[in-house]
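Next comes a concrete protein, fold included:
___
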Amino acid sequence: MRPRLKIAEMFSTFAHFDYNSDARWSTDNKLRRSIENCLSKSSSPESDQFWSLYWYKIWRNNAENLAFMHLSAYLQEPCYWAAKNIMKKFYSTKYELADYFQMGIAEVQKICNGFKPEKNVNLKTYATIAFLSLLKEILRQRQDVHICTDWALLRKVTKKRFVEALVSAGLTSEEIARYKLAWKCFQALYIQQHAGGIERLPEPSRKLWSEIANLYNRERQSQLVSASRELDGEMVEQWLRKTATWIRSYLYPTVDSLDVPKPGSNSPGHWDLPELTSESLMTELIAQENTQESQNRREEIHNFLLAALKQLTPELREVLQMYYQQDLTQQEIARRLGKDQVWVSRKLSKSRKILLEELTKWEQKSEKSQQGVNVSPDPNLLKDRSDALEEWLRVRKWF
């Protein structure tokens, strides 16, 4: 009975933080009843890996809110340890453990969207790595957002992030096209005056705003599909100030906890729980759990990569080991070895490239032997192999 109790806790328990304290863990009663009901009706394996895949399949196939909340509970623990890890590596007077945790847990849907059962070891392992990467990216973005003036931010933001921010703000495609043209005109004229790489770029002059407006008015006839009114310098300035605000909000969103009580409730997280009718899915997953083929394949890849690692130079192996197995940063490795950070980065890139090339050759050779024909390299698979290699280096013990 003990394993089943542990499974029930994993899929129904959430972390709560009081001021300046570590996490407290509390159970959502409805989720607890849901998972206990599934456990009582099933003769499935009592492993969290099985049940995480079970709820993931339901969520992926039906966008089921119940399944998503079970996954959210399950991912509390990897998010907590990722937050702990980040707290050790990044000193901050502004953020506590609870802040890092909330930054990460707000990205649960992104974690679930990125998980691929056929490529990753399991959801918890994938989530631990993904939470670390997301938190690092959030911190990097937040630093950029706060040290920049509006004009520096508008100068350095990419077109992709620019459009994403305006879509997130609720603008229509026509409105985005107008703001985007004003932004391009701003960049064209403002960068001419401020070609340096400083972050605290000064505010444009009234003369420059008028020049930007004039350029916009000339370009709008050919660049915009629908007609738009002429702008003056003051209106262009207002547009771009609003745009900078939207970009900051997009890059630095307000993080709401998943466990905040809903209006009218006294306990966190009350959800309507629909009847669970997924016996065919359960049967399918049990069959998958009993299949050894995928496990055997992973073991073959593991053994091959161990052999490939031995072919690397001692220098390359040492850098890989320090980065992936000892979890040191590139800067820490550089200090230990008496090198600069660029040297470490190049060694890591070279090592990964060699291993990825060898893995690709090995898989092509394996497929050829099974199918009896030459298998052409598929560029679309390289990204998947690279992600799998990254996960293997970080998770598996190979030294």
The radius of gyration is 26 Å. The first helix runs from residue 2 to 10. The CA atoms of residues 55 and 71 lie 7 Å apart.
